[in-house]
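Q: Can someone sanity-check these two? First one:
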Amino acid sequence: MLAEGKRNVSQTPETKIAVLATEVDQMRDLFGKLDESIDKMAEVSGAIQQMLAVHETQIQIQAQDTEDLSHLVEKRRIENDENLKELHSRITTGNREMAKDLHDTSNRIMEAIEDLKKTIDARDDAVRADQEALEQRINDLEKRGYFIAGVAALGGFIAGAFDWIAEIFN
């Protein structure tokens, strides 16, 4: 209603100018506030740009650190692979050497067993020869003992029969 009241009131050019001046003042205040807002927005934008620049720098540093770490991890992986290959080679070589040593030791043991077997066989042959010689000697002694016993028996028979033979001849 107030707006209708204003329209009905006849506006004089001075009134219109006063109203326009008031509105221009209000617009000036509004534009001043807009300027302040724009200035504050520019400050905030500058601060955001600084923060973004700092963050971009930090991101670049982290990206470089990540890349450096990636290269370091790859370098360590390659070194580890080389160390594993070397270790595998050493183990394989050690196994081969141990197998060869074991084979050589086995051969030496078998040779020693063969030498021992030959020595035992030679000793058995010598013992057998000694045993045969002793058996032959015992047989010879037995024969000699039987012969002596036979001669003694014949001598005793002759001595006992000598009386009888002497009587026959007498």
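And here is the second, same format, sequence then tokens:
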Amino acid sequence: MSTRSFIGMVNRDLTITSVYCHWDGYPEYNGKLLLEHYNNRAITRKLLHKGDFSSLQPQISDIQYYVDRGDEDTGAVKQTLDKFIEMCRESWCEYFYILKTDGTWTVATADSPDVFHDLEDNLNTVDIEESTSIIACEAIKNIEVEQFVESVRTSIVKVEFEKADGSLTERHVTLAPLLVPDDKKPKSDEPGLSLDEMTEKDFVRVYSITDNDWRTVKPSKIKSYSMPEVEFANNDSKFVMSLNME
């Protein structure tokens, strides 16, 4: 007998893209394969690209997608979280897997399709005391990252963040074009990352006034940031900045 499931991921606009999987939807099979072989957003996006399929496999090339056998209306579905949960309630599926934007797989069951648990904890522990709300976690993360990115695009930001070795450091950084020296400006043929790409890759390339050079900051490692007092003036058609970073 089949164990049906939905497999999906949270998009940057907080919608859910999902597909139907007919066989072996229980965590010990589908869940384990997702953790071991589909543990990043890029590969999961490829998994969902062709829509519904019969059985999850370690390699995408081995999956039998319904569209390949001529079935219609089997494409991936993109909808709000509420609509996704409503679809889960009305379906015959028993398990629902969602990949969050931080790369964490979560799972819910037919008994509680609106309560998602960490999938790895679900497989490794008997009793899960605490559940997480996908939409709450993702909304907070996206808002914080967006606010930081928009701040550095328009001003100088004093940011404290954790470096790779675990130590904390401070920098005054910006992405405002007028605040980047001409000799440090990126080449015109170097496209900048969009907000989605920045949060997807979890890094922002910013110009550090502290170092007079470009630096990489991971939004997930930011401890705090604030905008110092900045005054702008135009003197003989030249840009002049008076900056108090005390």
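A (reply): Looked at the second one. The mean pLDDT is 78. The CA atoms of residues 85 and 113 lie 6 Å apart.
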